[in-house]
Amino acid sequence: MPLVNPYLPLYKRLGYTFSDDANIEEALTHRSANKKHNERLEFLGDAILGMVIAKVLYQRFPKQPEGKLTRMRSSLVKGDTLAEMAREFKLGELLLLGPGELKSGGFRRDSILADAVEAIIGAIYLEAGMDICEALILGWFAPRIKALDPEAVSKDDKTRLQEYLQANKHPLPLYEVTAIKGKSHDQTFYVECKVAGLAKPVQGKGNSRRRAEQKAAKQAFETLINE
């Protein structure tokens, strides 16, 4: 009796069937599980997702300025949104994790789920090309794009800091990861933010680079305002 492909239900939810199951397997493999993991695909998928969402927002909201378009894009591609999407796709039950990550509940962690969505995008692009990849992304995000209200999208801390610096004709902030501590399944990222107008850099930490950058930006912005 032939084995049932474990990825078939996922393919149905994605609206795409991989011609080579090894590609989806790599996209779902965390670095704690194998030397061949999904970080390179995640890097590629992140860039593709940002471009596709930027394009559709540019077309859909022709009268909105760059700042609002940026905030709307950020609200769609941020980790929390991608983690929600990963749960809708039921990725958690298919993730390939190392023993430590399994023990700590990595299949529920937002950052791991969000990275898997980006990795899947990268894998689809490599296998099927840009046109199919873009169509799928737009389909997945259609309800969220339709619900967007340019006036209701709040600014994240990195955006607030950037706009403040631009308004005061200062250079943009520089973010640098200064340390990554902890085991692969439970890491803490430390980010340093250098800002013109502050005597010394400020630091932020979080369980992903993105969150650490947001916290550093928040501290930098509040320090600038208070001074």
Description of the structure:
- The chain is mainly alpha-helical.
- The protein folds into two domains: 8-146, Ribonuclease III domain (Ribonuclease iii, N-terminal Endonuclease Domain, Chain A), CATH 1.10.1520.10; 157-226, 2-Layer Sandwich (Double Stranded RNA Binding Domain), CATH 3.30.160.
- The protein has helices spanning 8-14, 21-27, 39-60, 66-77, 79-89, 99-103, 110-128, 130-146, 157-167, 209-226, and strands spanning 174-181, 188-194, 202-206.
- The chain has a three-stranded antiparallel β-sheet with strand order 1-2-3.
- The N and C termini lie far apart (72 Å).
- The relative contact order is 0.13.
- The mean pLDDT is 90.
Task: State the CATH topology of the largest domain.
Answer: Ribonuclease iii, N-terminal Endonuclease Domain, Chain A
List the strand order in the largest sheet.
1-2-3
Distance between the termini: 72 Å
Structural class estimated from helices and strands:
mainly alpha
Indicate the mean pLDDT: 90
Number of strands: 3
What general form does the structure show? globular
How would you briefly describe this protein structure?
This protein is mainly α. The chain has helices spanning 8-14, 21-27, 39-60, 66-77, 79-89, 99-103, 110-128, 130-146, 157-167, 209-226, and strands spanning 174-181, 188-194, 202-206. 57% of the residues lie in helices and 9% in strands.
